[in-house]
Specification:
This protein has 1012 residues and is mostly beta strands. The strands form 15 sheets. The protein has a nine-stranded antiparallel beta sheet with strand order 51-52-53-54-63-60-59-56-57, with no helix packed on it. The mean pLDDT is 97.
């Protein structure tokens, strides 16, 4: 190994990104004994160095302890730090979240490749180890699976090497530096280097050793690298495995190879090759054939195991490599991406590696939770945004069945796009030759490690780095190295000169209508949305507009939602409460605040209400019930429905009448009408048929009975004749108030306030303030992004400044009608009329009538707010559920009877906002622990509602969940209509017109209040 003196100049030189680092290789496991295979990644030839290390922090290089690596340097005064883990999450530096701009904006005036001298945190790590017995007297390496952003390495006082690239392994041969007894390992980690200019991803800017560190030794004759490729016959029945094996060390002996299926049955003959016949660089090529092969797909992730055995010339077994293999063919065929001959649709999502406690230093348990969630919610694909993930993730995706776009660690967003405008005057890497080698090295490190994972279908050149010759050469490297996969890069959208960089058309946040225009214009490439449905806060409205394209256009092949999980971190408040926090909460500046909260899963790995919609729109089985059964369309590519059970049930206004289950056999891609014994129902009540598909057996990702798809058919109720009550009303006229008394109830209306000031059933008071109409909702992140608050602010004034200008009374024998007209303080002005029809049966019919007028912005919502005491802390409803839904996000909701509490109905978005809504509501009952309460029921048309512990104003005034005040009231919002929530993006896209409310048109709704 070269004797090189390290220098800090490397940190600002993009052409120096590795010193003494060995070449990347496949991530296979290897063992010396067959019995050890069951240990998997805990190989006997591996020594884990994770744990507590000694640590010293410096704010910049000039303050660091320069001699800390020397053998005689005393580190007993150093702190301790956990490895793996981020420096910023262990009491040093500060957490900073940034989207596109560089984190030094406003602090330092810099251009690539330079970095700040005054602020560049340095972590000086030291650990001591004794090499374990199994590694002694063997060639030994150290592997850093992930270090952010650049680091220098010493062992026993001697410089070993230097490396950049945060997200792929950096490995060094340390054989000559090891000694008997205790060894001192020293690592100097820098937060910033020239690499920081091409690691400008939308994430928290951490540093440190955040993935595993371990030693490993290799046998004297060792399979150093392995590249497995599979080929299939034209009928996809026979398979051929072709492998290139690279041998290092003693090039003699023999190599044996054979395949076993998932049950451990040997399915090929044993192939034997003389190792001495390897090429000059140690390569051997081998081929194995299977006549009847089971294919790999996300639907059926069948894996075989390739066994490679090395024997010495004396017939001693010295190394075993078991490599999982999936037989599949991914190709572009007639401008369509096909898997095993079938057109594929990516029902995907972007996923950062993230934990609210550990940042990007996630655990196996985190990954298992994630992959189970993905499978349970019909998500079949993940883009590893925007860097290679931990190696374990790929193994899990192979095993569980998830398609992957594996993305190189490259993003230079801030170098070419400023405040949304394309301005690439100093873009990197661009066409700059000094940046080409470093990005090709990143491509190579990713491909060489990950090339044997069947789950990876596409290599991605990175994210949002504009376009240029350097990235084009990266794409050409991918094609030359691995023709079995396609290449993705969205950035060519900004510079069509390099259009050949990407094999597919890929755009970010294009509107569904714009995608359709592309598809109707004789496109040259199939289309995927590498990012769509920006799931920031209360979002994902209108997603069906995208998924509808899947069946209409063969060249539309799906997309990847942005994104999987909120990137929020736990932080303790001054009173010791642990809360989820976002950018700016750590006094980090600059920052992009809560723009890190874009997940369909909260940062604490609790699904958000958005997940319900995603699951439905991504289901592969479409079910359309009718009076006699259901039309079932199996849109799986490979699996029959006989692996599922079909459940069906009939409900009358939410109450179960009939249920059953059966099995149906529908081949992949086929459609069939299935007869079901629903029966005839000639009753006036509403009847609902629900048909659903469930797992017939346990799987590794869900238990038997898990629902994977459903469909509903609602037969609306006929008009029910209302009987006249026997009791009479007593009307009490006063100068200010009007009382209406009936059997066991009393309501008082105020002329002064223009509505109800008291509502009593059985002498129990139910309201605290006069119920009032409202036209404003607590703005969502999407509302804020499209400046809904600026455009529609008049409706805020209308909500809190309306004035009762007139009233009238219409007495009848068995009822009384009171009308109140409110004028709204907006320009042009208009009115809302509130009508209360109090009947002698103790019900109150409420009608809210808005008078449309030209010249006003879209109406956010038309509803009525009832402010009850907080003792009314449970509610049930018959309507769409179970989770929150809106007119543009209700496809995944089911009509049924559900229950919740106001606190549980408060969606935990990072910034409190409009939430908790339900559409299609027939009735909602709000009650206390004694069962006392109010029922709100629809009269002619179902309404929307929410029951929350806070008012719209309280929600809007809070920047965090912990900013919300103590709970004193229960707010019941009965809503005639609310605009959708949108989600095409969160920085300008409006709610789609069909989900908006035209303020120029009259709007009216009614509901009935009664005692429970």
């Amino acid at each position: 190994m070269k004797d090189i003196s390290p220098t800090l100049d490397w940190l600002e030189n993009p052409e120096i990104f590795r010193v003494n680092r060995i070449d990347a290789h496949s991530d296979h496991w290897f063992y010396e004994r067959m019995d050890d295979i069951k240990l998997q990644d805990e190989m006997p030839l591996k020594q884990n160095l994770n744990g507590k290390w000694r640590f010293s922090y410096s704010e910049n290089p000039s303050l660091r302890l320069t001699d800390f690596y020397k053998e005689d340097f005393d580190v007993s005064g150093f702190d301790y730090i956990e490895v793996p883990g981020h420096i910023q999450l262990q009491g040093y530096d500060k957490c900073q979240y940034i989207n596109t701009m560089y984190p030094w904006e406003g602090h330092d005036e810099l251009r690539p490749p330079h970095i700040s001298k005054s602020y560049n945190p340095v972590g000086s790590y030291v650990t001591f180890f004794n090499i374990k017995e199994e590694l002694k007297n063997k060639q030994t390496f150290i592997s850093f699976q992930g270090v952010e952003t650049a680091f220098y390495l010493w062992l026993n006082g001697k410089f070993v090497g230097y490396s950049e690239d945060t997200f792929t392994p950096s490995e060094f041969d340390i054989t000559e530096y090891l000694k008997e007894g205790e060894n001192k390992l020293a690592v100097e980690v820098y937060k910033r280097s020239s690499a920081s200019w091409i690691e400008d991803q939308d994430f928290w800017r951490f540093s440190g050793i955040f993935r595993d560190v371990y030693l490993y030794a290799v046998p004297y004759t060792h399979i150093n690298d392995l590249f497995v490729k599979t080929d299939l016959s034209d009928d996809f029945k026979a398979g051929t495995l072709n492998a290139t094996v690279k041998i290092s060390g003693n090039i003699e002996g023999r190599l044996e190879a054979y395949l076993e299926d998932s049950k451990g049955n040997k399915v090929t003959e044993t192939l034997t090759q003389d190792i001495s016949s390897a090429s000059s660089n140690g390569e051997l090529n081998l081929s194995l054939k299977i006549d009847r092969v089971n294919l790999w797909s996300a639907e059926e992730p069948t894996l075989y195991t390739l066994y490679l055995l090395i024997h010495t010339k004396d017939n001693v077994l010295t190394e075993i490599v078991p490599q999982k293999v999936g037989f599949r063919r991914f190709e572009m065929k007639d401008k369509i991406m096909c898997l095993n001959g079938k057109r594929i649709v990516f029902k995907g999502i972007n996923r950062h590696e993230f934990s609210a406690r550990r940042g990007r230093s996630i655990t196996k348990e985190d990954m298992l939770w994630d992959i189970n969630f993905l499978k349970q919610h019909n998500i079949n694909a993940v883009r590893t945004s925007h860097y290679p993930n931990q190696s374990l993730w790929y193994r899990l995706c192979d095993e569980y069945g998830i398609y992957l776009i594996d993305e190189a660690n490259l993003e230079s967003h801030g170098s070419w796009q400023k405040m949304g405008q394309c301005e690439p005057s100093w873009n990197v890497p661009g066409n700059l030759p000094e940046w080409q080698d470093v990005i090709l090295d990143r491509a190579s490190s990713m491909v060489e490690r990950d090339k044997n994972h069947p789950s990876i279908l596409i290599w991605s050149c990175g994210n949002e780095s504009y376009a240029g010759e350097d990235i084009f050469q990266m794409s050409e490297y991918f094609r030359k190295k691995d023709p079995s996969r396609l290449v993705h890069y969205e950035g060519v959208f900004w510079n069509r000169e390099y259009d050949k960089t990407s094999d597919m058309e890929s755009r970010m946040y294009a509107k569904a209508a714009d995608i359709e225009k592309y598809l109707n214009n004789d496109p040259k490439k199939p289309y995927i949305s590498c990012e769509y449905m920006h799931a920031m806060g209360n979002s994902c409205g209108g997603m069906m507009k995208y998924t509808e394209l899947e069946d209409r256009y063969s060249m539309y092949q799906g997309g990847f939602i942005w994104d999987y999980g909120d990137q929020a971190l736990y932080r303790k408040t001054l009173d010791g409460k642990e809360v989820l926090s976002y950018g700016g909460d750590f006094t980090d500046r600059p920052t992009d605040y809560n723009f890190c909260g874009n997940g369909i899963v909260y940062a604490n790995r609790v699904p958000s209400p958005k997940a319900m919609e995603v699951k439905y729109l991504y289901q592969n089985i479409k079910i359309t019930p009718d009076k006699n059964g259901a039309i079932i369309k199996n849109q799986n590519l490979f699996v029959n429905t006989d692996k599922y059970e079909l459940y069906y049930k009939v409900e009358k206004e939410g109450k179960l009448l009939l249920e059953g289950k059966t099995k149906v056999s529908i081949a992949a891609g086929e459609e069939k009408h299935v007869e079901l014994p629903f029966g005839e129902y000639n009753c006036p009540e509403e009847i609902v048929f629900t048909v659903s598909m469930h797992l017939a057996e346990d799987t590794i990702w869900a238990n038997k009975g898990h629902e994977i798809a459903f469909g509903q058919k609602v037969f609306e109720r006929k008009e029910i004749t209302k009987t006249s009550p026997d009791s009479k009303l007593k009307i009490v006229y006063g100068d200010v108030n009007i009382g209406v008394h009936g059997k066991d109830f009393k309501v008082i209306f105020s002329k002064q306030y223009g509505g109800i000031i008291s509502l009593r059933y059985s002498n129990k008071e139910f309201i605290t303030r006069t119920p009032m109409p409202f036209f404003w909702r607590a703005i969502t992140d999407n509302d804020r992004g499209n400046r809904h608050d600026f455009r529609c602010a008049q409706w805020l004034s209308a909500t809190y400044g309306l004035k009762c200008v007139d009233g009238s009374i219409e007495p009848h024998d068995d009822k009384i009608i009171l009308n109140y007209i409110y004028q709204l303080p907006i320009t042009p002005t208009t009115t809302v009329t509130m009508s209360y029809e109090v009947s002698s049966d103790s019900t109150i019919k409420v009608t809210v009538a808005y008078k449309g007028v030209e010249g006003l912005p879209e109406l956010p919502v038309l509803g009525m707010n009832f402010k009850l005491l907080s003792e009314f802390n449970t509610f049930s409803w018959y309507g769409m559920g179970p989770d929150e839904n809106y007119i543009d996000r209700c496809e995944g909701a089911k009509l049924g009877i559900y229950e919740s509490t106001p606190l549980n109905n408060l969606s935990k978005y990072l910034v409190p906002q409009e939430c908790g809504n339900r559409t299609g509501t027939r009735w909602v009952m709000v009650k206390n622990q004694k069962g006392e309460g109010l029922k709100f029921a629809y009269e002619k048309s179902p309404f929307e509602f929410s029951v929350l512990p806070y008012s719209n104003m309280e929600l809007e005034n809070a920047l965090h969940q912990e900013d919300l005040p103590p709970v004193n009231f229960t707010h019941v919002n009965i809503i005639g209509k609310q605009m959708g929530i949108g989600g095409d993006d969160s920085w300008g896209a409006p709610v789609l017109p069909e989900f908006c409310i035209d303020s120029s048109k009259d709007l009216e709704f009614s509901f009935i209040i009664s005692n429970i």
